[in-house]
Amino acid sequence: MTLVAFMRHGPTAWNGAKRLQGRADIELTPRTREFLKARRIPHEFDGWRVLCSPLVRCRQTAELLGLTHTIEPRLVEMSWGDFEGRTMADMRAELGPALAENEARGLDFRPPNGESPRMVLDRVLPLLAEIAKDGRNTLCVTHRGVFRAVYALARGWDMTGDPPDKLDLYAMHLVRVAADGAPTLVEINLALKRRWRKS
Q: How far is Cα 199 from Cα 185, in angstroms, rounded to an integer?
């Protein structure tokens, strides 16, 4: 079976402010750019095909890591609809029990005019099946919402309560994909490496 690694983009100003980005096209911070310039992916992923979300924060992440990539629209972040640009703390204060009830739906949690994690899987699983058919190990530079949906399926987690594992959202995570795209978790929290420079 084919291996697929998932990596989230580097932090943006909206990440720092805990604002829900979704499809908002927010660039990386200068600090993030400097960090990524000094990093590389682990050598075991050298030579893998790289697919990338079309949003600028992912494209910048791939470019700063020196990754030649192909844009894949299905790797775009989950749409947060009417919640984009807001914080979950503000939404909980405003919506109270109604938001808690929505969050308790887990995989079927859906912001108004947005996507649910299950809807994300509906577009990502066919892509994983295509990767499996192609047979090339592939690195996907994508978003938290995309990987969490894939991770939930791989771990049998319904996305209610805490996830079974502590995930480093800025590390790489590896799954094995079957012919139908179904993922099996192989390894999590594979950190980027420091790029050594000649003095």
A: 40
Predicted TM-score (pTM) of this structure:
0.94
Which residue carries 């932090």 as its tokens?
11
Q: Could you tell me which of 61, 86, 74, 77 has the C-alpha nearest to residue 23? A: 77
CA distance linking residue 127 with residue 73, whole number of Å: 10
Residue 171 has pLDDT above 90, yes or no: yes
What tokens were used for 153? 């399926």
- For residue 1, the model assigns a pLDDT of 82
Distance CA 154, CA 42 (A): 23
- Residue 9: Cβ-neighbour burial (10 angstroms; 0-12, 13-18, 19+): buried
Amino acid identity, position 22: G
- Residue 16, pLDDT > 50, answer yes
pLDDT above 90: percentage of residues in the chain: 95
**pLDDT at position 197:** 58
At CA 54, angle to CA 73 and CA 151, rounded to 5? 65
